[in-house]
Write a structure and sequence with these properties.
GO terms for molecular function: NADPH binding; oxidoreductase activity, acting on NAD(P)H. By secondary structure, the protein is α/β, with parallel strands linked by helices. The protein has helices spanning about 40-45, 115, 120-135, 150-160, 175-185, 195-200, 215-225, 250, 265-285, 305-310, and strands at about 1-5, 15-20, 30-40, 65-70, 85, 95-100, 105, 140-145, 165-170, 185-190, 205-210, 225-235, 255-260, 295-300, 320. It has two domains: about 1-120 and about 290-320, Quinone Oxidoreductase, Chain A, domain 1 (Alpha-Beta Complex), CATH 3.90.180; about 125-260, Rossmann fold. The N and C termini lie close together (about 10 Å). The protein binds NADP nicotinamide-adenine-dinucleotide phosphate.
């Protein structure tokens, strides 16, 4: 089969379409003919050789896809011809991939492969951060960094659905400010022009922060949290080292700081997120009360351009590859 591969780690020019072995589905897996897959920031880290792969993960990039079931593993569940999408350990940037049956979701009739392929990673991640880890309650205030990212787009709307009181977000342009507000952010700060700290500290601070920026925001994050506040760390796009930090507020405000990753979680844990997504989010995406934003679709033959587009930080929502 064909897949997007690279010989050397490095910039986007390393990516090309080449031949590799078609995966053989294990007992509880489906073999899927991939029609579309979606980009995630970790794909860029992995391409650079800076993402530690979980055990058993394919070396081929990509953790989410949509396609048509080609064959089933020995357990015989699943039907060839079904349209499915789902989250996987890796291997989505390819003509064929193997996915755990339990992780595959049947595609709604009216949904396109491009939309379905780009759903799981950001919605599961946002749900996990806000609810499983962050324990968001109605009436609480939340601060979401990277508001126009795929994860941010999902988190804003889930926070609104959970009846958060103030949804403060950060993002890097006035266009993104307008985008985040259109999704339900009550306050959006262009961090290139302003500091988020004053907005977040109104009303004694926020109850929950979802952060993927890391070092640059650490001090202001801690200052922005209210008593019993929670900081959920998803990534550290600005770096990991913080100098000269006073830990006293962690005790003084009884803060909880927790990091989490989705890809390293067990299948059972990911299936809990899938169930919440299927019950609470998917029906609202279908009836239009929640918007899933696909910013741009590229042919997989233009994968290097798609990666460069993500790296340029221009995107709002998801970037998708169609696979032929
Ligand atoms: N832990 C997990 O399980 C998990 C799962 C999924 C994603 N993530 C992480 O969550 C983040 C968002 O992922 P995504 O796929 O949704 O990303 P994305 O759509 O590519 O958006 C990322 C956005 O972050 C902003 N950004 C980049 N560098 C920044 C910096 N140094 N300081 C402040 N903002 C910066 C940029 O927007 P602006 O124009 O606003 O700067 C960029 O467009 C990534 O870091 C990803 O690795 C973690």
């Amino acid at each position: 089969m064909l897949a997007i591969i690279y010989i050397r780690t490095g910039d986007a020019s390393q990516l090309y379409i080449g031949s590799t072995d078609r995966p053989t589905p294990r007992d509880n897996e489906l073999l899927v003919r991939v029609k579309a897959c979606a980009l995630n920031r970790m794909d860029i880290l992995q391409r650079h050789g800076r993402y530690p792969l979980p055990p058993g993960a394919s070396a081929i990039l990509g953790v989410e896809m949509a396609g048509i079931v080609e064959a089933c593993g020995a357990s015989g569940n699943g039907r060839p011809g079904d349209r499915v999408f789902g989250l996987m350990l890796g291997g989505a940037y390819a003509q064929y991939c193997a996915i755990e049956e339990a992780a595959a979701i049947g595609m709604p009739e009216s949904m396109s492969f491009e939309e379905a392929a780009s759903l799981p990673e950001v919605w599961y991640t946002a749900y996990q951060a806000l609810h499983f880890i962050g324990g968001l309650q109605a009436g609480q205030d939340v601060l979401i960094h990277g508001g126009a990212s795929g994860v941010g787009m999902a988190a804003i709307q889930l926070a609104k659905m959970a009846q958060a009181r103030r949804i403060v977000v950060t993002c890097g342009s006035e266009e993104k400010v307008a985008f985040c507000k259109s999704l339900g952010a009550t306050h959006a700060v262009n961090y290139k022009a302003d500091s988020f700290r004053s907005k977040a500290r109104t009303h004694l601070g926020v109850n929950l922060i979802v952060d993927m920026v890391g070092a640059n925001y650490w001090t202001d994050n801690i200052a922005s949290l209210s008593f019993d506040g929670r900081l959920v760390i998803l990534a550290f796009m600005s770096g990991t080292k913080v100098a000269d930090f006073d830990i006293a507020p962690i005790l003084g405000k009884r803060l909880r700081i927790e990091g989490t990753t989705l890809r390293s979680r067990s299948l059972a844990y990911q299936c809990q997120l899938r169930d919440q997504f299927a019950a609470q989010v998917l029906p609202r995406i279908r009836d239009g009360t929640i918007k899933h934003i696909v910013d741009r679709v590229f042919s997989w033959r233009d994968v290097a351009d798609a990666h460069r587009y993500m790296e340029s930080n221009q995107s709002r929502g998801k970037i998708v590859l169609t696979v032929d």
